[in-house]
Write a structure and sequence with these properties.
single chain, 157 residues, alpha/beta, Rossmann fold, five-stranded parallel beta sheet, two-stranded antiparallel sheet, 4 helices, 22% strand, binds flavin mononucleotide, RNR_NrdI, Flavoprotein-like_sf, Flavoprotein NrdI, FMN binding
Length: 157
């Protein structure tokens, strides 16, 4: 399987930290079994150039919201908007194959709500979630979710 491609954004470093650990976990899996994919991750920030995506990718987005609960009243996305704009750029949304959300369960209904909103807006499945920097069990679970989803995408082609 081709490397799994990830685009992510990280304001305070938690997502970056998790993606680094996930990338190391994927490499270890690949070294043990060459059929299992590595991960190639790219961080999107306000300084990023918007480029056309041509291959399937996942996005990893933490949650920063202001306002309501997103269910019976609105919320406003803060800080992470540039990732959404990147996905919205050109035909990039067509290549998005899954969304992974992170957040803090103390936010109750708003837990991972940005990822859920991206999944709906860009018509891609919400494939996994984890809290804050995650724990080793999350790396295994999220990696398996990515591999499973990528197999579906490859079969669909
Ligand atoms: C101002 C602020 C607002 C946040 N709002 C939410 C929220 O609405 N829902 C949620 O699940 N987590 C929320 N979080 C938690 C972050 O999503 C969580 O800390 C995440 O790991 C941050 O990722 P990053 O360090 O990569 O930026 C909020 C955190 C901050 C500082």
């Amino acid at each position: 399987m081709q490397p799994l491609r990830i685009l992510f954004i990280s304001i305070e470093g938690n997502t970056r930290n998790f993606v680094e650990h996930l990338t190391a976990y994927a490499l270890a899996q690949h070294e043990a079994n060459a059929d299992l994919p590595t991960i190639e991750a790219t961080e999107i920030s306000d300084a990023s150039d918007f480029t056309p995506e041509t291959t399937p990718y996942f996005c990893f987005v933490p949650t920063y919201l202001n306002g309501g609960n997103g269910i019976d009243n609105g919320v406003k996305e803060l800080m992470t908007n540039v990732l959404g704009e990147y996905i919205d750029f050109g035909a990039n949304a067509q290549h998005l194959v899954g969304v992974v959300g992170s957040g803090n369960r103390n936010f109750n209904e708003q837990y991972c709500l940005t990822a859920k909103r991206y999944a709906k807006k860009f018509d891609a499945p919400f494939v996994a979630n984890y809290e804050l920097r995650g724990v080793p069990a999350d790396e295994k679970r999220v990696y398996q979710a990515l591999v499973t989803r990528m197999k579906e995408v490859v079969t669909d082609d």
